[in-house]
Design goal:
The complex is a heterodimer.
Chain A (H helix, E strand, L loop, with lengths): L8 E9 L6 E8 L10 E3 L3 H4 L3 E5 L8 E6 L4 E9 L13 E5 L2 E2 L11 E10 L3 E8 L3 E11 L9 H12 L8 E3 L2 E4 L3 H12 L4 E5 L24 H4 L14 H13 L4 E5 L1 E9 L2 E9 L5 E5 L2 E4 L5 H6 L3 E2 L5 H4 L7 H4 L11 E2 L2 E5 L10 H7 L12 E2 L10 H20 L7 E6 L4 E2 L4 E2 L7 H5 L7 E5 L3 E6 L12 E6 L4 E4 L11 E3 L8 H4 L5 H21 L3 H7 L1 H9 L7
Parallel strand pairs in A: 12-18, 13-14, 13-19, 14-15, 19-31
Antiparallel strand pairs in A: 1-2, 2-11, 3-4, 4-11, 5-10, 6-9, 6-11, 7-8, 7-10, 16-17, 17-18, 20-26, 21-23, 21-25, 22-24, 27-30, 28-29
Helix pairs in contact in A: 3-13, 9-10
Chain B lengths: L6 E3 L11 E5 L4 E2 L2 H6 L2 E10 L4 E9 L5 E14 L2 E11 L5 E5 L16 H12 L25 E2 L2 E2 L9 H4 L7 H11 L2 H13 L2 H8 L4 H9 L10 H10 L2 H10 L2 H5 L1 H9 L6 H9 L7 H7 L7 H13 L6 H13 L5 H8 L1
Antiparallel strand pairs in B: 1-2, 2-4, 3-8, 4-5, 5-6, 6-7, 7-8, 9-10
The chains are: A alpha+beta, B alpha+beta.
């Protein structure tokens, strides 16, 4: 396909007869994210595993975005029925916030879309198409996060399947996808996830001469540190200052637009390595293990849908959510362990710190946002669907503590609901503030639509890093990461006072001296060629509290990259480095220390 | 203590090796446990606690009633607040409850609190100080003194700490801490917060542990104070919960989500089966926080049979995932879908006011 846009226009003419009617069905499936002209709509690939596909979203912060357009080639003329797969993302007793419509050859179809409270096909209307090509447009009506996964045109009045399994199977059929990607690429190391940990791993391995594939589902590197999410990098550099300074950030306030400067630095630096093969906008969707070894990672281009298989003797899971390990069958944990499991009590904070009974009430995810004061007044629309979440809360700025977790929500499986809840909190709080005198000139300058996650799956390694390692000041023969940042664990404020907003958190800081993370926490216990770096490293809930920040996760990445180089040199798996080549490995890491001339 | 206005109560004390003393207390400016304070009859010294900031030790005093029952802890403080070697004295009387939580303070009317520029505190400052001291997780707890000012902001007047301009005036403190500290009195706030939340709390906790008994635990549980109740709940074996189900139901309905969550997670399975208790918990479903609701749903399988029926009347308060949990529970065993529950579900579908009726419709099909 090269660099040209691959327009995923699927023209599928069903030859089979419908069982009951005996009528032939002619249908065309258009993936919205594949529209060549996206206008102001954005590709959102965050929730593919839950709702089935990347989708287009009209993230206009209250101002309708420009149309996304595509051209569709039709083999048959006729009266087409049109459906869009969409949802009302904030259902309630108000007009749905994310409404849009469809135009075909400039003719607006009858029905407004984005009305049902779950992902489903909504009927847009019918249109008579007599030309061989037709122009199709998504028309945002609200500017508030209307979303469209796909459009289906059919001469028959028969919507596509709606249930997840049937839909996935139908989709494959429509796409005429073979079971495996047509292209396979081979490397020395395949890293999935281009956050700070993944970037550091790629640089370290590349500097040692490995051919590295770095697969990342966004256009920009850095994950939570990217200018798309804008969390500044905290923590210390450990032994890897030289590498981490290529990719970290200044200590600007969270959400600052200064993140763009560091973004440029990071992207330039990573791209300067000829042997880092960068796959931006590629999202991994599968990994298969055989005999406890990952065999390959499959990924899909988030807009075009093109697929590719990545093979290597070694893999790094730097996805944050531990997807590679999860798919490959690696042991993992999720949630808060009982305080007794690893002895992680801090009596001062009791249940807020670590509960007696285990639960799933992990630290939440954030959406950062920024406002600016313009020269003229700025009207913000009424947002009753958002005020229902914000309630009385007023704000003209966000910070790290805009964070959402609830014990019926899973940070991965319910990610879309969590993101949407935060958007409602932001728009609602801003709307409340706008009603106050003196705030007339405030306008939303930037609101992220990407979840900044703190905690999700944690893959289990040979060592599980816990609070006890910190309190006991454990030093290991394989200490490859060092940190001195306080152990910082969050809880939702409304746990102590239910009148407080449910989207604000509080941090508990356990001050400490230096603590160390062993190499054994950075490879899987049961998948023998899988490293992990980033928040999905091997740790407990409390163990994650300190080292989850990005210079520390960057240290993990670099440590893993260097380990991979020795794995290649000796043709061994990660565990053998600890067992047989630890001295050489630790010397290699020691040699990375920045020497100030 | 030499106070001009006070409460005089004299009784003898018989506690271990310490003699009871007459108590003369000036009415505190702020006091969360007014009733207990009114009952104070005796005092006894409980040793000293150390303040590393000032390198001073202060006597800790236990206040009791005329039955020698402990009520409050108290300390009469004189401490310097210093910046760059310039110090001023601060006089304050601090009170803690029996589990070491700060509950109030008083001042000597002749020695009002002052700001760094010697202006006296105004009423709002005294109130703000109380709120600050009540905050266990104040920003003051995790910052070093030198981190508590923003060198980027120019103060209107010059006061320095280690050569850097500090907080005495408007605009000098970080915005983050500005909300919680009293303008112009950052160092007083800092000193007092650490005094209130420092070593003294451990002293009090140690004392409480040394006298803790089942009876004392019960009295805390049946008190009207959430922190006492939570302390008692934590220090009680789960099997003991059964003795207190009416009180647990009361606490569950009245207290904050954290305490509710704790009770629901610790309750032994047998307790869930008690019809009356189960009814109390599940009938409160729509009135309590979302996290507690989830825990109620998670425990449905061992709750009394009345629970599922009570929930069927409150389905419209469930989140999507909670509704899924509920429907899954009903689906697991056909007998759980009683005619009453089914009728309630049908009714909510017919009203179409609830966002997730589509899930119920699919379930009923």
């Amino acid at each position: 396909m090269g660099k040209t846009y691959f327009i995923k226009l699927i023209q599928f003419f069903l030859l089979c007869l419908l069982v009951n009617s005996g009528m032939a069905q002619d249908g065309i499936l258009l993936e919205a994210e594949s529209f060549p002209e996206k206008g102001g709509w954005l590709v959102d690939p965050q929730f593919v595993e839950q709702m089935g596909s990347p989708y287009l979203m009209a993230h206009g912060m209250g101002k309708a975005v420009t149309n996304a357009t595509t051209e569709v080639t039709l083999e048959k003329k006729g009266n087409y029925h049109v459906w869009a797969r969409t949802k009302n993302w904030a259902p309630g007793n108000w007009a749905p916030p994310g409404q849009f419509s469809i135009k075909v050859n400039a003719e607006k179809l009858e029905n407004t879309l984005g009305l049902k409270p779950y992902w489903n096909w909504e009927y847009a209307g019918q249109v008579d198409i007599q030309s061989p090509k037709a122009k199709l447009e998504l028309v945002d009506l609200t500017g508030f996060n209307g979303r469209c996964d796909a459009i289906y045109l059919s001469l028959a009045n028969e919507p596509p399947p709606s249930k997840a399994k049937a839909l996935a199977s139908w989709r494959k059929q429509m796409l005429q996808e073979p079971p495996a990607p047509a292209t396979t690429k081979e490397y020395d190391l395949v890293i999935t996830g281009g956050g700070i940990a993944g970037c550091a791993a790629a640089i370290a391995a590349a500097e040692e001469g490995l051919q590295v594939a770095l697969i990342h589902d966004r256009p920009l590197l850095g994950g939570n540190a990217s200018s798309e999410i804008r969390v500044h990098t905290l923590g210390i550099y450990g032994k890897f200052e030289r590498i981490l300074k290529k990719i970290d950030t200044e200590h600007y306030p969270n959400g600052s637009s200064k993140a763009k400067l560091d973004q440029q630095k990071r992207d330039d630096n990573v791209k300067s390595y000829k042997n880092i093969h960068l796959f931006l906008n590629w999202r991994a969707y599968d990994a298969v293990a055989k005999d406890d070894m990952v065999q390959y990672v499959d990924a899909r281009q988030t807009a075009t849908g093109e697929r590719m298989r990545f093979q290597a003797p070694l893999y790094v899971d730097a996805t944050g959510d531990g997807w590679i390990g999860y798919w490959a069958g690696a042991e993992y944990s999720y949630g808060r362990e009982s305080v007794y499991k690893y002895g992680e009590a801090w009596d001062k904070w009791g249940e807020l710190w670590s509960p007696e009974e285990p639960d799933n009430f992990v630290m939440g995810s954030s959406i950062l946002w920024q406002t600016e004061v313009g020269e003229t007044t700025f009207d913000f629309p009424e947002v009753p669907w958002a005020v229902a979440v914000a309630k009385e809360h007023e704000a003209v700025a966000g910070e790290w503590y805009w964070e959402f977790s609830r014990n019926d929500l899973h940070q991965i499986e319910d990610g879309e609901e969590i993101r949407d809840h935060m958007l409602r909190a932001i728009f609602g709080s801003f709307s409340n503030a706008k009603h106050q005198e003196g705030n007339e000139k405030y306008r939303l300058e930037w609101v992220s639509y990407l979840l900044g996650k703190r905690e999700s799956r944690r893959l289990v390694g040979d060592h599980i890093f816990t609070f006890k390692d910190v309190v006991d000041k454990m030093e290991f023969s394989d200490s490859v990461v060092v940190e001195k940042r306080a152990i910082d664990v969050h809880y939702q404020r409304n746990l102590q006072d239910e009148k407080l907003p449910d989207f604000l958190s509080e941090a508990l800081f356990y001050k400490t001296g230096r603590y160390y993370i062993p190499y054994r926490s950075l490879y899987s216990r049961n998948i023998n060629n899988l490293f992990m770096a980033g928040r999905n490293f091997s740790c407990s809930h409390i163990g994650l509290g300190g080292p989850r920040v990005m210079r520390t996760t960057g240290q993990m990445g670099a440590a893993v990259g260097f380990a991979a180089s020795l794995c290649k040199k000796y043709k061994v798996n990660p565990r053998t480095i600890y067992q047989k080549y630890l001295t050489e490995y630790m010397n290699l890491i020691e040699s990375q220390q920045w020497v100030n001339p | 203590m030499g106070k001009s206005v006070g409460l005089l109560l004299t009784l003898s004390l018989g506690l271990i090796g310490i003699y009871g003393m007459t108590v003369v207390l000036e009415k505190p400016l702020h006091m969360h446990m007014e009733k207990e304070w009114q009952e104070v009859a005796q005092q006894q010294e409980m040793g000293e606690f150390y303040n590393p900031d000032s390198s001073l030790s202060h006597p800790l005093v236990l206040l009791t009633n005329d039955q020698q029952e402990p009520l409050l802890f108290y300390a009469d403080i004189l401490t310097p607040v210093c910046i760059d070697g310039t110090c001023k004295p601060v006089y304050i009387e601090l009170y803690w409850n029996l589990i070491g939580n700060y509950v109030g303070y008083g001042i000597d009317q002749t020695q009002p609190l002052t700001k760094f520029d010697h202006d006296n505190f105004i009423a709002a400052d005294y109130e703000k100080l109380h709120q600050l001291l009540l905050d266990n997780n104040s920003v003051l707890s995790r910052r070093k003194l030198e981190d508590l000012f923003d060198a980027d902001v120019q103060p209107e007047k010059k006061v320095t700490y280690k050569g850097v301009e500090v907080d005495a005036v408007t605009g000098a403190t970080r915005k983050e801490i500005k909300d919680s500290v009293i303008e112009g009195a950052l160092y007083s706030c800092y000193t007092l917060w650490h005094l209130v939340h420092g070593q003294v709390r451990h002293k009090i906790e140690d004392y409480l542990r040394s006298i803790y008994s089942r009876e004392l635990g019960d009295s805390l549980l049946y008190s009207n104070y959430p922190d006492y109740q939570f302390y008692a709940l934590k220090n009680m074996e789960a099997v003991e919960y059964h003795r207190h189900l009416p009180q647990l139901a009361h606490i569950f309905k009245e207290r904050e989500p954290l305490i509710r969550n704790y009770i629901l997670k610790k309750l032994p399975k047998e307790a869930w089966k008690e019809a009356r208790f189960s009814e109390e918990l599940y009938s409160a479903f729509s009135k309590i926080d979302l996290n507690s609701r989830t825990l109620l749903l998670k425990n449905l399988s061992h709750a009394n049979l009345n629970a599922a029926t009570l929930l069927s009347e409150q389905v419209s308060k469930m989140t999507k995932n909670q509704l899924k949990m509920y429907l899954r529970f009903l689906e697991e065993d056909e007998s759980r879908l009683s005619p009453t529950i089914k009728a309630n579900l049908v009714q909510i579908v017919s009203k179409e006011e609830y966002t997730f009726t589509y899930l119920i419709s699919a379930f009923l099909e």
